[in-house]
Specification:
By secondary structure, the chain is an alpha+beta fold. The protein binds cytidine-5'-monophosphate. Cytidine-5'-monophosphate (C5P) binds next to helix 5.
Length: about 300
């Protein structure tokens, strides 16, 4: 994808700011481990109103600075997915521009809400704009899918069905507003570790792999039946994650006892997501969840919201 046409004005835009949302999976159905080391998925992504803001400025090399809760635990070199995203874009388009990225994080770090993928998606969009590259949404989607399973969805947002590794997306029309309470448990839980536990439980006959998304969930989403969505939430990584961290089961039960429409682990955890019927109920539940000893932070969010987009 060499740049064609007139040479772009170097750093035509002096500064680009991109806002990108977190996600929960309304369904996360996991198939058996494939030869490529990945599990085929049947998933429904849903973008929620917790955001990271990435600001990009012209620079010589590629660098990143991260702020916000937990940011000091993240890599700021090639280990950072946003740095890799900028490098991949530069290489793909054969340009030699640089970027200084600054990220204000609100999406919980290592929480199962795809914060790292969100930053990579924001970096792709911000650098494409900053460097004035002739990119189409499909180009960024393809580059995103090479960076991580959740990156393409962070670009599109909304509610979308994902297959393959989760990178093949079909947007879904979902009616209604969804109010979420997100309870962050202490200490992150590595995604590969949870998938490995899923494989062990599969070998022991304790979980049944499968990628079919429950019809009840699809129907409830299509009709805006929020209670129906709550009842049909499913995450095949929940039991493996709970077997690694039993307190997550207790956090989910604590919310369920408070009377929610639905409760589930978000992605590979350890964030627990609760669906409720209104903002008032979300405020009440958030106050209750704060009292649980395994919970260190509680946030409220609504969905669906759009994917990565420039903000002034
Ligand atoms: O693609 P991503 O970087 O999010 O994946 C992290 C790890 O999670 C992979 O290296 C793999 O071990 C596991 N994974 C998987 N199947 C998927 C997605 C992730 O086994 N569909």
């Amino acid at each position: 994808m060499e740049q064609t046409g007139t040479q772009p004005t170097l750093h035509m835009l002096g500064r680009v700011k991109v806002r990108v949302p977190a996600k929960v999976n309304l369904a996360l159905k996991v198939g058996p481990l494939g030869d490529d080391g990945y599990h085929p998925l049947g998933t429904v992504f849903h973008a929620v109103s917790l955001y990271d803001d990435l600001e990009a400025l012209p620079a010589e090399g590629i660098s990143i600075e991260l702020r916000g809760e937990g940011a000091d635990t993240l890599p700021q070199d090639q280990g950072n997915l946003a740095v890799r995203a900028a490098g991949l874009l530069r290489e793909t388009y054969g340009v030699d521009h640089g970027v200084a990225m600054s990220v204000m994080k609100t999406i919980p770090v290592a929480g199962g809400m795809a914060g790292g993928s969100a930053d990579a998606a924001a970096a792709l969009l911000a650098c494409a704009m900053l460097w004035d590259l002739d990119t189409q949404p499909d180009d960024l989607h393809e580059l995103g899918s090479r960076l991580g399973s959740d990156v393409p969805f962070a670009l599109v947002g909304g509610t979308a069905r994902g297959t393959g590794r989760g990178t093949e997306l079909v947007p879904m029309i979902s009616r209604g507003a969804y109010h979420w309470v997100l309870a962050m448990a202490r200490d992150g839980l590595g995604t590969p570790l949870v998938y490995r536990r899923f494989d062990e439980m599969h070998a022991a006959g304790e979980v049944e792999p499968g990628t079919e998304i429950p019809r009840e969930l699809m129907n409830a989403l299509a009709t805006g039946d929020v209670a129906g969505v709550g009842a049909a939430l499913v995450n095949d990584l929940e039991r493996p994650a709970i077997s690694l961290r039993p307190e997550l089961g207790r956090v989910l039960d604590h919310g369920r006892r408070a009377g929610v429409l639905g409760a589930m682990l978000s992605g590979s955890g350890p964030t627990c997501a609760f669906l409720v019927g209104s903002e008032e109920q979300a405020m009440d539940l958030a106050a209750q969840m704060k009292t649980h000893p395994a919970v260190w932070s509680v946030r409220r969010a609504v969905g669906p919201v759009p994917g990565a987009r420039p903000v002034s």
